[in-house]
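Worked problem 6 (solution included).
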Amino acid sequence: MKRVTVVKADEVEVKPFLLKDFTHDKEIQRSMKKVTKKELKNLAESLGMKYTDEQIGFAKKLIMAYHNTYSEKR
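Solution. The predicted structure is:
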């Protein structure tokens, strides 16, 4: 049989649930895949979009900047 301790409500500390308290930063970074120019070109072609190499390069830089900025805040 297990022991049970009864406490008053004001003795209990209540904190909001934060996912990052239960996960490691390395796991979050691993789940984010690095985007390549080839993948961006294939995606644009599959969507029927016209593009230039400059636009693909810009899109890659933008996606990586977003990843670097917001993956740390998770």
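Discussion: The CA atoms of residues 29 and 71 lie 7 Å apart.
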